[in-house]
Amino acid sequence: MKALIIYWSGTGNTRKVADTIQAALAGAGVDTRLKLVKEAADDDLYAYDLVFVGSPSYMWQPPPPMLKYIKERMDYYRERDTVKMGAPGLPGKRAVVFVTYSGPHTGLNEAVPVGKYIGQFLEHLGFEVAGEWYTVGEFHNNEEASTQGRLGDIRGRPNAKDLETIRGNVKKLLA
Ligand SMILES: Cc1cc2nc3c(=O)[nH]c(=O)nc-3n(C[C@H](O)[C@H](O)[C@H](O)COP(=O)(O)O)c2cc1C
After folding, report:
1. Which end of the chain, N or C, is surrounded by fewer C-beta atoms within 10 Å?
2. CA of 92 relative to ligand 1 center, distance in Å
3. Whose CA is nearest to atom 2 of ligand 1?
């Protein structure tokens, strides 16, 4: 099995989750590549059995570099006619979306649109979206958003417990 992890991270929270996924996959013997979106611009997703795409939530959307990546890759695959009407699932092709967020205003609902958006990119390509993993992350350089929001005091997150949850998710995915 071959796996690819693509992510963007402004302040390191999503990177921590990406690194944890990579370590968990490698520990399970999966051949895994970890790339920033800008390094993955030419990677063919169909060369992998398991694709992970990770992003923070910015104004409940993926941030501009992730949006750009998805738009460019959709154009690329549309031109090659791999985006089929009805999005039939390709046997053995699975994907996971992972999102970090701070939820200062409405909580998890600020992250779910990001997970769904990225998930739709992968599903349109024929990947089965086998997971949407949402992880709380400190809102760096914004103490109010990290302590006074709907999720309370989220400083230091993702913490060891959050990353343990991610390791557990990887284990279940591979089971
Ligand atoms: C410009 C900006 C906008 C953000 N907008 C949201 C938001 O709408 N909802 C939310 O839950 N978190 C928001 N956040 C918080 C980030 O999603 C959160 O801290 C995330 O874990 C950052 O991940 P990163 O360290 O990988 O960049 C925002 C952060 C920044 C810098």
Report:
1. C
2. 33
3. 58
